[in-house]
Amino acid sequence: MTFGDSLRETRNSFGPLCVGIDPHEHLLRAWDLEVSARGVREFGLRTVAASAGRVGVVKPQVSFFERFGSAGFQALEAVMAAARDAGLLVIADAKRGDIGTTMDGYTAAWLSPGSPLEADAVTVSPYLGAGSLQATFAFALQHGKGVFVLAATSNPEGRVLQRAVPHAGEGHAGSVAAEVVETVSAWTRTAEPDAALSSVGFVIGATVDRADAGLPARLSPAAPILAPGFGAQGAEPRDLARLFGPDAHAVIASESRSILSAGPDPVALAARIDERRALYSEDQHG
């Protein structure tokens, strides 16, 4: 089974909500946990326990673990292993991006079966050239894994680069973000010609105006979209269909602060997840 197949099944069962595991320092303190590797491990494990059976996907933000060095990575390994053992799909939000054997190393770390950091999918940056990621895509497909390529992010700093128009005067009217999407989509058309949903998708912020970013109204072929921006960042679950149109069926809506602010009590945290999940209407689950 490909990652695209697994994601479709999971989304059909649980809907689009993805719980972000983001142990910000202020959240650790609010949860009465140490600002340490031990604290982020406990934070992550509690979030996994509350998420299991309620959502299908979790997304640990790697940086909050990495800040504590080797002990932080050990904490992340424990959290991701617990999530996968609980039947959750794990997207490692690592945003790796490089060329050649360096990128191969990142790929092996996050996507190799049996790796200590094994995830079901990883986020990557295409800004050393989307073509530099093709070996990662091929590796992911070979091992039933997924990749989410940064395309159009909601942070204002990304706007100038992502919306820039390359090759001015040479007949190319699309933005850099659009060129990233087309380059990746061209690869998946060949690699997964019969897939209902590809295993290589995109990160597109829920607060991004897709037309303004130069993105197509519909992805072709169909690809999963990891969409941060729901909840605390302002996008509302009821707006998912309007924001993503014909691609709405493939959106994974990431929320973290809107859920994690419920605090450490397991009953309250589970109830908040149920509450946020219910806000995504039934017609978006299929």
Main attributes of the structure:
15% strand; alpha/beta; globular; eight-stranded parallel β-barrel; single chain; disordered C terminus; 8 strands; 12 helices; TIM Barrel; 286 residues
Q: Secondary-structure map with pairings?
A:
Blueprint: H1 3-14, E1 17-21, H2 25-30, H3 37-51, E2 57-60, H4 63-66, H5 69-85, E3 89-96, H6 100-111, E4 121-124, H7 134-142, E5 146-152, H8 159-162, H9 176-191, E6 200-204, E7 225-228, H10 240-244, E8 251-255, H11 257-260, H12 266-278
Parallel strand pairs: 1-2, 1-8, 2-3, 3-4, 4-5, 5-6, 6-7, 7-8
Helix pairs in contact: 3-5, 3-12, 6-7
Describe the model.
The chain has 286 residues and is of the alpha/beta class. The protein has one domain (3-281): Aldolase class I (TIM Barrel). It is built from twelve helices and eight strands. It has helices spanning 3-14, 25-30, 37-51, 63-66, 69-85, 100-111, 134-142, 159-162, 176-191, 240-244, 257-260, 266-278, and strands at 17-21, 57-60, 89-96, 121-124, 146-152, 200-204, 225-228, 251-255. The chain has an eight-stranded parallel barrel, surrounded by seven helices. Strand 7, helix 10 and strand 8 form a beta-alpha-beta unit. Helix 3 packs across helix 12 and helix 6 runs parallel beside helix 7 (134-142). The longest helix has 17 residues, at 69-85. It is globular, with a radius of gyration of 18 Å. The model is unreliable at 282-286 (pLDDT under 50).
